[in-house]
Design goal:
The protein is α/β, with parallel strands linked by helices. The chain has two domains: 361 residues, TIM Barrel, CATH 3.20.20; 104 residues, no CATH class. The protein contains 13 helices and 19 strands. A hairpin with a 2-residue loop joins strand 1 and strand 2. The longest helix has 24 residues.
Length: 569
């Protein structure tokens, strides 16, 4: 789904073939959460956190997923299939950006919204999620300018991967967008001073800037578990771009070369993750595939499904009956079935990566009458094709885990009872497929197992932070200084040990802190500021507020970041 929509909003296309992304979005920004944080003694917080059990890794952690004989398999050669969802502003929710949070957050209690979302995904058997690994709003980009990254956004993405890992969830990361200007093909062509957006596919400078971003992503070292992204089996696959199109003359050939070159570049840097391309699945004129397409305009987008997927690990399609003016459920079934057959013929697993249906009334009656027949039709065909070994995953658009006052027409919340019952039933049936999965006979178990999380002493030392106050309340929230936001703080325990505590400011405006016991790291230290603890930190928690160090440590990015060229300007 294109990026002019926000938080589930997608304006109706002006004409067949016109993207909803080109129209102005009229939804109102969510109002900031007005929650006052109660005064909290740090010693009490620490004791409470240490008492919490550490979550065990899910039994469904499959290592890196790969393709064998047209099927997804895990590192032990067991077949992998999934039901999942698209999440629009997940990075912003992780960072605590106010408009990505629920209007009424009272249902959360003291829970963090990101963790609420992911816990609900686990409970709903949504095992794979998809997100845009770049900003969905101009004001919260991942990359401000070439090579200059928004560290708050990057750290929020770190946290998403870390939290998904703890729950056994996997996630597809889309690296760029076709539709929006910022962090999309238009942005890269502007940075490259190319003549037009159509030059993105062939302009060498634009291609270089994209490759540089790919390298930055793959070499990014997660602040919460020490893994580079290319080492993290939480990532299901890299998606080169969301819905790439090249409608200009000669565009199909340029797009195909770009897809082939960039897939090869990703594999050069990362030999463990799968690569896909994120297209809608349109065919090119002359391929004899007019029948499943919405109209003749779809033959001229530059996409060529049969060629586009040849050098991808798996095929993906998007199905948008409203945008394409194909308003009958039978079209959805036909589109999925046709692509499932073509992908299977080429030995590629198919993921139905986006599908949704507009519903404007936001009522149970409206959803039952307008949306549910399309969602049901999609799942019926997906399950039929899955039983035949042709479709291997589905991701509906767009999951809104918490109901908002004014949800977008594509938003699906767990409180939408009729629609959610269809989704839940599908997830249960896919779970049944998984329980019945056997080892793929032609598969060889992975020789190299996925890396385990680690945070070395060097990494800890490079990311140290300091705490100016023991009391975390609304009046003192700004006295927390960290190497990132979210970041870490060194805390003392009564036995003289210092712990590196991840202190995440879930909603900075409201001053709501949350902490993760999984991020505790023991750090050697002794009285007098020896080792990696300073005088104010060791050997024990002092009485009253912690004084500001006369010479606080320099807040810097880790050496490993700098080695990878990721130190922001």
């Amino acid at each position: 789904m294109g990026s002019a929509l926000r938080l589930g909003w997608a304006p109706v296309a002006a004409a067949a073939g016109t993207s909803s992304r080109d129209l102005v979005e009229t939804s109102v920004m969510r109002r900031a959460r007005a929650v006052a944080a109660a005064a909290l003694m740090l010693a009490v917080v620490l004791c409470a956190l240490l008492a919490l059990p550490v979550r065990a890794l899910s039994a469904n952690r499959h290592g890196f997923i790969r393709v064998t004989d047209g099927k997804f398999v895990n590192e032990d050669c067991e077949e992998f299939r999934f039901s999942g969802a698209n999440l629009w502003a997940l990075t912003e929710a992780s960072a605590g950006v106010h408009w990505a949070l629920p209007n009424d957050a009272s249902f959360l209690g003291d829970r963090d919204y990101l963790r609420f979302i992911l816990d609900r995904a686990v409970a709903s058997r949504l095992t794979v999620l998809r997100m845009f690994a770049h900003g969905t709003e101009d004001v919260f980009r991942l990359q401000w300018s070439p090579g200059n990254y928004n560290e708050r956004a990057f750290t929020a993405l770190d946290r998403i991967l870390h939290e998904c890992r703890q729950r056994g969830l996997k996630i597809i990361l889309s690296l760029a967008d076709n539709w929006k200007f910022y962090e999309g093909k238009a942005q890269y062509t502007a940075w490259a001073n190319a003549n037009s957006v159509d030059d993105f596919w062939s302009d060498e400078k634009a291609r270089e800037l994209y490759r540089n971003h790919v390298r930055a992503m793959l070499h990014r070292r997660n602040k919460f578990n020490g893994l580079q992204y290319r080492q993290d089996d939480t990532i299901f696959a890299w998606e080169l771009m969301n819905e790439p199109r090249a409608p200009a003359p000669g565009g199909a050939e340029k797009l195909q070369r770009w897809l082939d070159d960039m897939a090869a570049y990703v594999r050069q840097l990362d030999g463990q993750h799968m690569v896909t391309y994120g297209g809608e699945g349109f065919y090119r004129a002359g391929t004899g595939r007019d029948e499943p397409l919405p109209a003749t305009w779809a033959l001229n987008t530059g996409q060529d499904f049969l060629q586009n997927i040849r050098n991808m690990d798996f095929a993906a399609i998007h199905v948008w009956p409203d945008n394409w003016k194909m308003l009958w459920p039978g079209f959805v079934r036909r589109y999925i079935a046709w692509h499932a057959d073509d992908a299977a013929a080429l030995g590629k697993p198919l993921v139905v990566e986006e599908y949704g249906k507009m519903e404007w009334t936001n009522t149970d009656e409206g959803r039952r009458a307008v949306r549910d027949p399309y969602i049901a039709a999609a799942y019926e065909q997906i399950e039929e094709s899955m039983a035949m070994g042709k479709v291997h995953g589905s991701l509906f658009w767009e999951w809104e885990p918490a109901q908002h006052d004014a949800p977008g027409p594509y938003s699906i919340a767990t409180t939408h009872r009729s629609t959610w019952s269809i989704i839940a039933a599908h997830a249960d049936r896919v779970d049944g497929f998984m329980r019945g999965s056997r080892r793929v006979a032609t598969c060889t178990p992975a020789a190299t197992r996925a890396a385990e999380p680690h945070v070395s002493d060097e990494w800890i030392a490079q990311n140290e932070a300091y705490l100016l106050s023991k009391r975390l309340d609304d009046s003192t929230r700004d006295s927390v200084r960290t190497s990132a936001d979210p970041g870490q703080a060194l805390l003392a325990t009564l036995d003289g040990t210092c712990l590196l505590l991840d202190l995440y400011l879930g909603n900075k405006d409201a001053g709501i802190p949350t902490a993760d016991p999984l991020a505790f790291r023991a750090v050697p230290g002794s009285a007098g500021g020896q080792g990696r603890c300073w005088t104010f930190c060791c050997p024990a928690v002092p009485e009253g507020d912690i004084a500001t160090p006369e010479h606080p440590p320099e807040l810097a990015y880790g050496q490993l970041d700098r080695d990878d060229g990721l130190d922001p300007a």
